[in-house]
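Bumping with the actual sequence this time:
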Amino acid sequence: MLQVCLNGARNRAACSHLPVTAAELAAAAREAVAAGAVDVHLHPKDSDARDTLEATAVAAAVNAVRAAVPGTAVGVTTGAWAGPDPYVRVAQVRSWSVLPDHASVNWHEDGAAEVAQALLDRGIGVEAGVYSGTDAAERFLGWPGSRRVLRVLAEITETTTQDALYAASELLERLRPAAAPILLHGEDAGAWPVLRLAAARRLDTRIGLEDALHLPDGEPAADNASLVRAARAIIRLAS
């Protein structure tokens, strides 16, 4: 499974063509799915282009993307950068009027179990985000609801090739007891080496402007679709 991560917590200062508005996210999702993505992850933004979990912004983004790619699962973030108080994030999840198919929960963040439970209570799939270099794997595996998640996101934060590949192998070993499918991905300069590892191991993976601003050859990525096409080529070679 190849997921596209359309924008992440980045802003236009980091990427001038980052999709931010609901209409931009819809257009980017349409192009990325046409290029071969089968699942969409996005960060709803407020009027200042900052990540938000506010119900109106979530509804606008999810509705627009669903209309653009009907039948494709659409997920959002619940990252603490969108709201540092976990109890506020739980209340926001419970206030959503339009429900995404899934939402990511970062297990190194305070309140992860409570946010995940709020999602499950609403019938929203949980992507358990487990960052390398943290104790998130142990915290997640120790949670009584760990077998109820949709998938585990093995998220590699190291950005040199050697460090990223070592961290990925180490994290996958720690996640061996997990019952859910693993989606392995990296970021920035580590994104493509880790994606190749995921392809070689037949694991789910993702790519998009959240994770990488450059193609495998180092050229700047014009859009999410170009990243997806490059990822599809790597996955085909590994199959």
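The tokens above came from a reply further down the thread. The chain has one domain: 2-238.
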